Amino acid sequence: MQPSYALKEREAQIHRKGNTPFEIECDKDSLAGAVSQRACVFCGSRVVLYPIADAVHLVHGPIGCAVYTWDIRGALSSGPELHRLSFSTDLQEMDVIFGGEPKLYKALIELIDRHNPKAAFVYSTCIVGLIGDDLEAVCKRVEKEKGIPVLPVMSEGFKGNKRAGYQAACNAMSRLVGTGDISGISKRSINILGDFNLAGEIWLIREYFNRIGVEVVANITGDGRVEDIKRCHGAALNVVQCSGATQDLANMMEEQFGIPSIRVSYFGVEDMAESLYEVARYFEDDEMLEKARELVKEELQTLLPKLQKYKKALKGKKAAIYVGGAFKAFSLVKAFRLIGMDVVMVGSQTGTREDYEELQEITDDGTIIIDDANPLELSAIMKEKDVDIFVGGVKERPIAYKLGVAFCDHNHERKEMLAGFEGMLNFASEVYGSVMSPVWQFVPRRSEED
């Protein structure tokens, strides 16, 4: 039975797990007029590259594009803060008519002279794609004059969906890879791909890997540095978390430098532990594997007793999940199960068929799996399933609150660490505080039930 709340063209992107065979469409452009929660190509590239902290990030386009993506991630830096400044060429009507290349050249020269960055990323926007400015030529000219990498990011917003922006970002970064000195890098070394250091999470993950004897060469891109990315081809393994955002770069590095990659997640107890075990197994190092087991044991001895309070109160409550990358959804399903809650809806903006097949395997019968949802669909599903908490991002928060449903921010603007064992405790605490708040008894939906 097809959902009554979905537009006909959207029905194939919604699946209810049950007796029918699994079938879902995904990785396609958003339906015009459906008010999709998904962002544009340009935004996709910005969220990946933004955390590289010692580079200039210049948006070649109207000022609105730069404002839209200003400080778009809660990506912390242990040093430079250059990434938190949002620069734009502020294209105007005359630039559209006569071309924006002179303005771009002047902006790059001024920014490089003023800030002395290690590199510059130049993002193309919709209007640049329409008027035909040659970013490649301008970037090559400035790179030759200033002696630093100046990298065009071909991210015209209209030419695809958010996933295309991830690919544009990876194409730009690939120009840096292989240009640095790799001497002195350990044979037991990794690059961390796809973690963006929200609330300082990458520092915690690096500490875990250091404790088991693994050297981290480059963070790509949380708390990222240009020089580290230049030499990241010296690492033995790429550990990829947000597969949608950085898997393309991992694939390029495997093809060009022979560096294999593994997919992991740092959210939830099971996936965090398995991430450490998988790296140790890759290096075939018994001592490293034993250190990983000791680390996990030590962390769980502290964590599990504290979770019991939350599990007792939350058992049987219902959760809905809608996140950007499907990798987070896998871990969230397991994390909710650990604290006794049932996931009744799960979806993502950029999931692949393989992602949704995995979600089908780990969810219960009756769970709704959805790709590239819109507010009408999300609202209808939450009401149908009588959801107690909705996990999403900044665009989904108003939907939850208007329905009188608790909300947990798991997107890139958040300021609370949710990765690792410490993050699992923070997550349980936030879910508990939100779901058990007495305020929900006063919303119309609950009042009617009473």
Strand count, sense and barrel status of the largest sheet are: 6 strands, mixed
Helix/strand-derived category reads: alpha/beta
Shape: globular
Mean pLDDT: 93
Seen as an oligomer or otherwise, the chain set is: single chain
Percentage of residues in strands = 5-15%
Total count of strands: 14
Strand order of the largest sheet: 1-12-11-10-13-14
Number of helices, counting only DSSP H or I runs of 4 residues or more: 18
Straight-line N-to-C gap: 31 Å
- Low-pLDDT segments: none
Radius of gyration: 23 Å
- Helix-residue proportion: 40-55%
Q: Would you write up a description of this structure?
A:
The protein has 450 residues and is of the alpha/beta class. The protein is built from 18 helices and 14 strands. It has a six-stranded mixed β-sheet, sandwiched between helices. Helix 1 (41-49) packs across helix 7 (162-174), helix 7 runs parallel beside helix 10 and helix 13 (326-338) packs parallel to helix 14 (353-362). The radius of gyration is 23 Å and the shape is globular. The two termini are 31 Å apart. The mean pLDDT is 93.
SSE map:
Elements: E1 14-16, H1 41-49, E2 55-60, H2 63-68, E3 87-88, H3 93-98, H4 101-115, E4 119-124, H5 126-131, H6 135-146, E5 150-153, H7 162-174, E6 189-193, H8 201-211, E7 215-220, H9 226-230, E8 237-240, H10 243-257, E9 261-263, H11 269-282, H12 286-314, E10 318-323, H13 326-338, E11 342-348, H14 353-362, E12 368-371, H15 375-385, E13 389-392, H16 397-402, E14 406-409, H17 420-435, H18 444-449
Parallel strand pairs: 2-3, 2-4, 4-5, 6-7, 6-8, 8-9, 10-11, 10-13, 11-12, 13-14
Antiparallel strand pairs: 1-12
Helix pairs in contact: 1-7, 4-6, 7-10, 11-12, 12-17, 13-14
